[in-house]
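TODO from last week: model DUF853 family protein.
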Amino acid sequence: MSKTEEFFNHITEGNKTKGDFIPIGAAMLDGETVTGAHIKIPLKTMNRHGLIAGATGTGKTKSLQVFAENLSDKGIPVLLMDIKGDLSGIAKPSPGHPKIDERHEKIGLPFEPKNFPVEILTLSEQDGVRLRATVSEFGPVLLSRILDLTEAQSGVIAVLFQYCDDNKLPILDLKDFKKILHYATNEGKQEFTEAYGRISTASTGAILRKIIELEQQGADLFFGETSFDTQDLLRIDEDGRGYINIIRLTDIQDRPKLFSTFMLSLLAEIYSTFPEQGDSDRPELIMFIDEAHLIFNEASKPLINQIESIVKLIRSKGVGLYFVTQNPTDVPEAVLGQLGLKVQHALRAFTAKDRKAIKLTAQNYPDSDYYNTTDVLTSLGIGEALVSALDEKGRPTPLAATMMRAPMSRMDVLTDLELGELLSKSKLVKKYNRTVDRESAYEMLNEKIEKAEAEEAKEQAKKEREALKKAESKHKTTSTRRRSSTRMNPIVKVLTSATFIRSVFGILTKVMKK
C-alpha cells in the first residue's frame, strides 16, 4: 500500500460519521489534494465551539462563509458578527469562476452557486434591523462586570436595581440609569438611607464616569426599546433553510467596549431563554465572532471569567460559538481549551516573535505521523487550513491539512441598491426599527421629584400664610390695647374738664369769702 493510500484510509476512517455532517474540503498530503479524502464535521459536535484562525488574506472569512452556508442548508440558523463588512454577499449566488471549478474537481465535491436567506442587523445607525436591550435586562451582575466595577460599586448597582424593582421603575436606557444614580445621593438620599442604607457619592460618581465612557462608544444607541427577541435568530425560511443573521459592525471596530457589551448581553439572553438540549444530534444556533481579539484585548479579568463561564454553559442550550481571529493566542487559554473544532489557516514567520507564536500554535493540534505541524503552518496556501475536529463520540479526528471548498454565494458585499432591496422585504425591520420611549425611571423620578417639590412649596406657603396670619393677629391685639389705654373714662373726663374745675374753684372762693 502506498503512502497516499495509507493516508487516504487514515483520513476516511477518522472522518466516518453515522449522523448528518458538513463536508468542508479534502485532505492534502505533501502539498497535493487527496481526492475523496473528505473532511467532515459532524453536526452533533458543532455545539462544542471552535476556532478559525490565520494571518490576514489566508482565507479565514471564506471558511467562515462556507460553514455558514452549509449550516443554513442543513436548516440551522447562523449569527455572523461582521466586523470587516464583507459577508453580506451571502445573500447573492456566486458568479462562478474557472479556479473554483478546478478547486472542486480536486476536492471531489460538486459546486452549486446559490444565495441564502439573510437578515442584516445593526447595533448603530447603519441600515439594518436595530438591535437593542434594556438596562433592566442586563441586570446588576452583568452590568457591573461590563463596567469593571469594584465590589463596593457593584453593591451600589445591586441596591439601585432593588430600589427600582421595589418601586416598579423600569430602567430602559442609560438616561434612566443615570437618573437613578443622581437621585440616590440627592433628592432621594433620605429615602435610600432609611430603606437601603447610605450610598456613597464617591461610588455613584465613579459609576457615572464608567457609564459616560460606555456612552462615548455609542452604547446609548444599544440600550432601550424595542428589545430584540433572541427567538428571531432561529427563523427558518420556506425552503427549510436556516436564516444567516449578519450583524454589521464595521463602524464600531474602534469601540470594543460596545462590541463586548453587546456580545455578552446576547449570550446571557440566549442562555436564559433557550431550553436545555441535552445531547442533541444538531445545534440550535451557531455564532461566528469575527475579529474576536477585539473582545479579549480590552476585556477585564471579570469579563473574561464571564465569557469563559458562558462558553462552558451555553453548549447545553445547543449553541456553538466560533471565534475568528489571526492567532489562537488572541483567545485566552481558558476559552481556547473549550474549543472542539480548530481550522488553522497559514501563519507567517516574519519575526522571532512570529516564529515563537507558530510553535505555540502547533502545540494546540494533535500529533500526526504525516505532518510536521510547525512546517505546515507556514507553507499552507490561500484557502488551505489545518483542521482538527471532534467525531460523534467527542474524540479528536486525525489532523488534516485541508483544501477548503469555495463558498457557493458571492464573495463580496452587497451594493446599496441590493441592500435596500433586501431590507425592504424584511419583517424584522418593521418590528424593531421604531423607537419606543415609554414612561420609565427617568420620567417617573422626575415626576416624583416635581410632586415632592410641589408638596414642599405648598407646605412652605401654608407655613408662610399661618405665620402672616399670626403676625396680623398679634398686630391687631397690640393696636386694640393701645386704643384702650388711651381712651378716658367718662367720669374722669367730666372731673378733669375745664368747666368742672372752674365750677369747683368758684364754689371754694365763695365759701372763703363768707
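Done. The chain has two domains: 3-132+225-432, 136-221.
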